[in-house]
Write a structure and sequence with these properties.
The complex is a heterodimer of chains A (about 650) and B (about 90). Chain A is an alpha+beta fold and about 650 residues long. Chain A folds into four domains: about 1-165; about 170-340 and about 345-410, no CATH class; about 420-495, no CATH class; about 520-630, no CATH class. Helices cover about 65% and strands about 10% of the residues of chain A. The radius of gyration of chain A is 27 Å and the shape is globular. Chain B has one domain (about 5-90). Chain B has helices spanning about 5-25, 35-60, 65-90. In chain B, helix 2 (about 35-60) runs antiparallel to helix 3. The relative contact order of chain B is 0.09. Classes of the chains: A alpha+beta (about 650), B mainly alpha (about 90). The interface between A and B is large, with 47 and 42 residues.
Chain lengths: ~650, ~90
């Protein structure tokens, strides 16, 4: 009965979304406020029915109701509870419903938060949001219905179970976090379209959208980093970013979203770049939908894509429809939205922001081109030309380093124009720091991009520290406070500014980690119990081989002691070779999987993979990687989130 | 499907429709017509106050010259006083 309710909830939501359209149009035509209230309530109901449908599917997954095809495909009786919940977004139909679920929650927040605000905009904002809901309801009702029953001719005793790669704690957090970001961009998009339709050039909605965008940007950033973390822990190739189409799909809207977050500050403060901001938000939202298309359509083969389908044309059509309408409106409203002010100086903060925007968009375009090129080449020539990591690295590393430079330059530029004196005063110390880092790098034998990266890391760190020190000094002079009190009150009183600097510091930390990749080392070897293998300054001793049967898999666990050059054991690694669905009578359905074991420190990670096993001779095939500075990537991620939270923290007006 | 299922479906559907239609059966006069102008002006005032505060921070850490600071501050203060006048006018 519950699947019937689920399917019905989706059908009712679809019907009501159509009714909402009609009622809201009636309000726009007649101006009768009753229609607005009725439309508003219809969207509340659409959202509630969509949420209900998702909760019902979740219930079926937890209860292992294999009468539902989706449940039978992505869970089994042995699947642990956490991964039964994870199965909600593991497959196509479930993940699209999950999109709708988050969108519906966001819709409810927007509806209630802005009930008595932006009277001109809100009917159109609601219309745009319900139109996005409508699109996902069409798909979940007619194309990928998560409540479709299993074949009536079969009684399914047990399900397929979840893909072993997805049975990872990070994977239970990464997709929802990313989706919170992806879907969240629907709201700024809805406001931007509403502003274009009504011609509302007031800066008021920009403020509220900026805050919203910052929240969803934080989720998206965390989602992208968690995706890298998952790849690092689970995929076993020793890296966290492979320029895979699905990774790129999450990265592209992040780039334009980050550009938007910067340029919206100029609109808020200087009333400039109005059209540019709308273009950025339209691109960001379109790239979010495009990302869903890449992940869900199956046009790209990817280590992150766990579904393949015929949804491609629908999504692509929707992306083009959105772009057509949005750019049509932008052209129509071009003269109304043209900013009256102009950037006066090349050395102003405004131009710094504009530069950084241009770089973000260039990187996004390069990534976009590299991602879709294989599809285009296949469509045009019939041969799929793969664009690999070397292309992306070649293009994005120099531009990324320039962006890092701008991360340092931006904060020390002054609004309107930076005078020569201010330029010298603000830049002297950071440049000195950068040069010291450069010299240090040369002395220890670095070269190429690595040395440029370290010099820029020194430069940007100095800029951020200088900003903090100046602020503290200024407060101490006026308020006579201690350093700590001055720091706390300074950050408390200027949360968005200092939160932003902390975010920049997070980015610097991440660049430290990225630079460390240049020094990665690896060794693959076979080893017998009791033997030692030397690698770098470490000795690896194979001490044990355990066999374990767990609820949903069978595992061989290798015990490896790691000795340093002072003959001390620094850690014990336990990489595993697992066989999932080992109880399945059909051997073809048993899935082997390597579970890694990583010893992580501030300076380097020792990364171990159990590649294979010869049980009779007790030989293990092990791969070891020594990855310097990876820890800084994750630290940078945490600092970035912390900085965003500081910037977001509410304060008294 | 038993008899209970369609009954529940009809029940939920009716509640939903009633919730949506309820505003439409009330007379137009009974609908509250909110006044938003003052709220929006107040929010605009808050934004300007915040901009003045940020300008002061920039000046105190030596990022702005005395001339630029004074110029920008005068513009912002003029905008604030315009908005305060508009709020008074709209409220009265």
């Amino acid at each position: 009965m519950i699947p019937v309710f689920g399917g019905l909830s989706l059908s009712l939501a679809l019907g009501l979304s159509f009714i909402a359209f009609i009622i809201l149009f009636l309000f726009i035509r007649t101006g009768d406020y009753r229609f607005y209230l009725a439309g508003w309530r219809s969207v509340v109901m659409v959202s509630l029915f969509s949420i209900l449908a998702t909760l019902l599917l979740l219930n079926e997954l937890i209860q292992s109701n294999f009468d539902v095809d989706y449940v039978a495909h992505y869970t089994s009786l042995e699947t642990p509870l956490l991964y039964k919940v994870t199965a909600l977004w593991a497959g196509q139909a479930g993940s699209l419903l999950f999109w709708l679920f988050i969108l519906s929650i966001y819709c409810l927040i927007v509806l209630f938060q802005n009930r008595n605000k932006y009277t001109q905009l809100m009917p159109w904002v609601i219309l745009v949001l319900v139109s996005i809901q409508f699109f996902f309801l069409i798909i979940t009702n007619f194309v990928a219905n998560p409540f479709s029953p299993t074949d009536v001719n079969f009684i399914v005793a047990n399900g397929n179970g979840l893909n072993p790669l997805l049975q990872n704690l990070t994977m239970s957090i990464h997709p929802p976090t990313l989706y919170l970001g992806y879907v969240g961009f629907s709201v700024p998009f809805a406001f931007a379209i509403a502003a274009l339709i009504t011609g509302d050039t007031s800066p008021l909605w920009i403020r509220s959208i900026r805050r919203w965008t910052l929240i969803v940007w934080m989720f998206q950033s965390a989602g992208v980093i968690l995706g890298g973390w998952w790849a690092y822990q689970e995929l076993g190739w020793g890296g966290y970013w492979a320029w895979d189409p699905v990774e790129n799909a999450s990265f592209m809207p992040w780039l334009t979203g980050t550009a938007f977050l910067h340029s919206i500050i100029i609109q808020e403060k200087k009333d400039m770049l109005r059209i540019w901001n709308i273009v950025l938000i339209v691109l960001t939202f379109s790239l979010c939908i495009f990302g869903t298309f890449l992940t869900r359509s199956g046009v790209m083969s990817s280590v992150h894509s766990f579904t393949a389908s015929n949804l491609g044309p629908l999504f692509l059509g929707y992306v083009f429809f959105n772009l057509f309408i949005s750019f049509g409106l932008i052209i129509y409203r071009k003269s109304d939205f043209k900013s009256k002010r102009r950037i006066k100086s090349f050395t102003s903060r405004e131009s710094g922001f504009l530069f950084n925007n241009v770089i973000f968009v260039i990187i996004c375009f390069a990534v976009f081109w590299g991602t879709i090129f294989p599809v285009i080449s296949e469509a045009v020539t019939g041969t799929k030309i793969t664009v690999g990591a070397p292309f992306f690295n070649q293009v994005t590393i120099p531009i990324g380093l320039f962006l890092l430079f701008m991360t340092g330059v931006g904060p020390i530029l002054v609004w309107r124009r930076t005078s020569k004196q201010a330029f010298i005063r603000n830049f002297s110390l950071p440049i000195a720091f950068g040069l010291v880092s450069l010299l240090g790098g040369i002395i220890i034998g670095m070269s190429g991009y690595v040395i440029i990266s370290f010099a820029l890391i020194g430069f940007v760190t100095a800029v951020i520290l200088e900003e903090f020190i100046r602020g503290i000094r200024s407060r101490r002079k006026v308020q006579n406070e201690t350093v700590i009190t001055a720091l706390i009150s300074m950050v408390r009183k200027n949360r968005s500014r200092y939160g932003g600097y902390i975010v920049h510091l997070g980015i610097v930390f991440m660049f430290v980690g990225f630079t460390g990749r240049a020094f990665n080392q690896e060794l693959e070897f076979s080893i017998k119990k009791g033997q030692f293998q030397k690698f770098g300054s470490y000795q690896f001793e194979f001490i044990s081989l355990q066999e374990l049967e767990r609820p949903n898999h069978f595992a061989w666990v290798a015990g490896l002691n790691v000795w340093n050059d002072q003959n001390e054991i620094i850690t014990r690694l336990s990489p595993e070779k697992r066989i999932y669905f080992h109880r399945d009578p059909n051997p073809d359905r048993r899935q082997p999987h390597s579970e890694l074991s990583i010893f992580s420190t501030v300076f380097k990670d020792i990364y171990s993979i159990f590649s294979g096993i010869d049980i009779e001779q007790e030989i293990a095939y092990i791969k070891i990687m020594i990855n310097p500075l990876v820890w800084w990537v994750w630290l940078g991620g945490w600092v970035l989130v912390a900085g965003t939270l500081i910037a977001l923290w509410p304060h008294k007006e | 499907m038993d008899l209970f299922t369609p009954l529940i479906i009809i029940f939920f559907f009716t509640i939903g429709i009633m919730f949506i239609v309820q505003p439409l059966i009330e007379s137009p006069g009974a609908m509250p017509q909110p006044v938003f102008d003052v709220d929006e002006l107040k929010r605009k005032k808050q934004i300007l106050y915040r901009q003045i505060k940020e300008l002061e921070t920039d000046f105190s850490v030596g990022k702005l010259s005395q001339e630029d600071y004074q110029k920008s501050r005068d513009i912002l203060k003029r905008n604030v006083s315009d908005i305060i006048q508009q709020i008074r006018h709209t409220s009265s």
